[in-house]
Design brief:
The chain is mainly α. It contains 2 helices and no strands. It is elongated, with a radius of gyration of 12 Å. It starts with a helix and ends with a helix. The relative contact order is 0.12.
């Protein structure tokens, strides 16, 4: 359930975060940071669970 919520939040921020929060991201650096933090969170969760 938590993984599903985290995935939905990530998709919402990645897709519509700039419209909702009003940030300017012409180079895609914010989206890159969001994707990196999501992947690192998956890796950390996998390592702590196993």
């Amino acid at each position: 359930m938590i993984v599903g919520i985290a995935s939905l939040i990530f998709i919402a921020l990645f897709g519509w975060g700039s419209d909702y929060f009003g940030w300017a991201d012409p180079n895609g650096k914010i989206q890159l940071a969001l994707a990196t933090s999501f992947v690192l969170g998956i890796l950390a969760g996998y390592k702590s669970a196993g």
